[in-house]
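It is worth pausing here to work through a concrete case rather than discussing structure prediction in the abstract. The textbook approach is simple: state the sequence, then state the predicted structure, then interpret. We follow exactly that order.
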Amino acid sequence: MTKGKIGVQMMMLKHKVEELGAYETMKKLYELGYRSVEVSQIPMTNENVTALKKATDDFNIDITAISAPLEPMMPGREQENLTDHFDKIVADCKALNCDFIRIGMLPFTIMGDKNNILGFIDRAEQMAHKLADQGIALYYHTHHIEFQRFDGKYLLDMMKENTTQLGFELDVHWIHRAGVDPVDFIKQYKDRVTLIHLKDYRIGNLNVTDDDFKDMKNFFHKFVNLIEFAEVGEGNLNMPAIIEAGREAGAKYFLIEQDDTYGRDPFDCLRISRDNLRKMGYEDWF
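Step two, the predicted structure:
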């Protein structure tokens, strides 16, 4: 099997882009050794697209994927989306020499509603065919909510069974949080998963005070919410097994993401993840 490529989901750097600009943020990633990024939660203004393009040329960093919702996340919310801004998003994608557009999550107002979700996925499948005519693949990024069961079957599996063109970007933290083994599950999505999110799963410190014991609701709120997003290799997931399962399933890009860095500089977190992945034997995937 060929080797994969390890990159960065830039959602965790959105504040760095606001502070430093897209070009300087990409330069920092280059200095850390990364050569692949997925762009998310960064406004695709002319300024940012131009800066990203210049960075790809100057630093040889691939824009592996960009992000766009299929339609607004909530009724009345103005938001660049594939349904209403197809030509602009495709033009951005082509300007960045990018092969993937990914939908980050379900619209908020349909979560938990099987029929509405399957209707949404049907529209996403139609959009995937439309984008395929442009040489672009459409992927859907998973969380834990898609593992709700209906008649004994995961909603995510229903989504897969009702599509052929749409791909799935599996996020291993959210799979684990749903109570499912990421290694086994990734294998079930063979040839439907080119993009995988590497996101570790850590149990944080239980910091309680005397006041928490005076109101046990406070104690149990802290007790049941100990789960943290961790740097790769700093949590409890078997990352080498996950990566190998992804490679067997046809994944090519393994994108590091950490939804919350808990006050730590995200570049420091990416340095830790990089060092741990190199120790695991993936140095030549950077």
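Step three, interpretation. The two ends are 17 Å apart (CA to CA). The mean pLDDT is 97.
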